[in-house]
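Reply to thread "Modeling small-molecule complexes from scratch"

Following up on the discussion above, here's a worked example others can learn from. I took a protein sequence and the SMILES for zinc ion and predicted the complex. Inputs first:
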Amino acid sequence: MGSKASTATCLPFLGFFHRASSVATSFAQPAMLQMPPKRSSFALGIIADVQYADHDDGWDFARTRKRYYRQSLKLLQKAVDEWNKRSLDGVIQLGDLIDGKNKGLKQVAGEEHPSERALRLVMEQLNRLTCPLYSLLGNHEFYNLPRQEWVKRLLSNVALDGDPDRAYYQVQIADGWRLVVLDSYEVSSCGWDEGHPRHAEAMEWLKKHNHNIRDAKRDWLAGMRGQAKRWVHYNGGVTQQQLQWLRDILTKADKADEKVLLFSHIPIYPPSTKDTTILWNYQDAMKVLHETQCVVACFYGHDHDGGEAVDSHGIHHITLASPLECLPSENAWGILRGDSDGGLVLEGHGKVPSLTISVRENKIEKAVKGG
Ligand SMILES: [Zn+2]
């Protein structure tokens, strides 16, 4: 979850990037991951909101939850150690790899900017993975580097159809299983240049739904109630274009009798999270999910506390807890295991609970009727 303090400077570009861009090409990324899978089961590591910064421990904006900025890197290191002991088909990190605080840290003359250093240290851990890494982009990414830089650095191993602005994609992880990754900051006041149409669209949405946004000095949440609290800078939305892409992918998956797992940095089902951490146009996204039968579960970050709910169509919505707010003795990561019969299990570690995720009842009905 973001904070007003860190998002108030949700500016589109940071000058240091030009000076430190040499790191951009140094991250080892696996080759394009579109080879047809041979197996009908899979195991996928999962983690959300590492949010590392070389910064003293602090508090969230409400000053109710302690944040351990340096420790989160050690917890990521431990998670990578554990993932590497297993035979995994991939690891998916759900965004906010480094915290926005990095951008405000003092740069030592002749050394890399703290944002670059933080990202290098985090990637040194993730590059130890013996399996492919899949990434999502979160708001804290954009407080440190511009959007296209993140697309280049973290999404070079997935198919984006050559569009440098695009951050949503899909991957077939096993025979009968598909991962669909949404870009929940496609319409956003973060990441884009201020002159970009998506930035302008985001500001239009925000001002329409939250009168506080017109005055930069006002508390964003003053007078806001319930789910209206989602209309703040650290959240975002999706375009109709992305929703049509999602509809097309799900329609094809449905016809192929595949099961789909969906991933989004911002939660799209309100009961699985807080009013302050919901996708702006979550209703549009939920409507698309309910048009087909193939989506089994959705996984989110951004919230830090974690949560779980099942919607009216039987889709599981799971928000992961963040390592940033773990005690030194804790951690927060998991492994998703899908089998050839359509069974799905989340093997949780630390604050991430272990769950058996049943396939949707209507899906079972369909299979029974089909004989
Ligand atoms: Zn976030």
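What I'd highlight from this example: Residues 268 and 279 are 5 Å apart (CA to CA). DSSP finds ten helices and 14 strands in the chain. Questions welcome below.
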